[in-house]
User: What shape does this take?
Amino acid sequence: MLILNDVLIDEDIFLQKFVCDISKCKGMCCVEGDSGAPLEKKELSLLEDNFPFAKEYLTEKNIKAIQTQGFGVCDEDGDLVTPLVDGMECAFVSYSDGIAMCSYEKAFLDKKTSWRKPVSCYLYPVRIVKVGSFRAIKYHRWDVCKTARQNGSLQGIPCYKFLKKPLSEFFGEDFYDELCKVGKAFLEEKNK
Assistant: This one.
């Protein structure tokens, strides 16, 4: 791992190519998995406050799951995650033309709210984790994103460049600019 300021950086964000292709994967990251998407505690109030805007995109079954479980639940590992419907899809997912998408993101794109969606979803395939006293940016590899890796390879776009906007919003533009410099230096050194 590399370090930038007080953040550990997984080298795979520079090495792995990645560009989402939702037309091929159909948004399966919102449906597959052992538990819901990771949440930060502060996101519970954002989920609740913005729920009236997201609710209109949800089915009654999803709304009932949220009303029953709440906006966040603890998974088997004790981590705070989004609730699921029938142990499968995220309770906040909605469908359009067979493609799964976050109802909060739909409300954001329709300019009904200024909050997009949980950071773990926005930053995917990157996960922000604690490593000792540090935060770490870790690349997460998942089979449902095979088409994104293929698409990234075809376009020659590494993960960190695909995630320019969410990384800049989460860590700040100055951090992202420094991240690019670290990535360039790392790749130059690796290719010597």
Remarks:
- The CA atoms of residues 19 and 152 lie 5 Å apart.
- The mean pLDDT is 92.
